[in-house]
Amino acid sequence: MDKAGYGLIETMRVRDGRIPFLERHLARLRQSLGELGLPKPSQDVAVLVKPFAATGDAVLRVEVPAVSPQDDGAGLLHRCGPGSRRGGGR
Q1: What is the mean pLDDT of residues 9-21?
Q2: Are 44 and 75 spatial neighbours (Cβ–Cβ below 8 Å)?
Q3: What values do phi and psi take at 15, rounded to 5?
Q4: DSSP reduced 3-state for 32
Q5: Read out DSSP for 37-89?
Q6: Tell me: the pLDDT tens digits for 32-86?
Q7: Which residue in 6, 8, 12, 16 sits closest to 80, CA to CA?
Q8: Is 20 contained in some domain?
Q9: Measured between alpha carbons, how far is residue 20 from residues 24, 25, 44, 68, 85 in Å?
Q10: Which DSSP state fits 4?
Q11: What total number of domains does the chain contain?
Q12: What is the residue range of 70's domain?
């Protein structure tokens, strides 16, 4: 199957200088990649996202494309934007 255009997105909340449930996010990402038969990212996702904890409150979006234009293997893209606190005062 041609995997161009396929990939996974994992969205993580950065709150109070940490990424809650980081290990759960990473486990879900690994499991989903395996179930979809997509290659493992060429970069260590945990190493990549941990520095973003210092951004305060934000939303971190990790995208793992099936094909990276740079190396024709799994790559990693990340975006970080301002977080929002909605309802419930969590």
Answers
A1: 89
A2: no
A3: -140, 130
A4: helix
A5: TPPPPSS-HHHHHGGGGGG-SEEEEEEEESS-TTTSS---EEEEEE----STT
A6: 989 988 888 878 888 888 888 888 888 888 888 876 555 444 456 566 666 544 4
A7: 12
A8: yes
A9: 9, 9, 18, 28, 15
A10: T
A11: 1
A12: 7-82
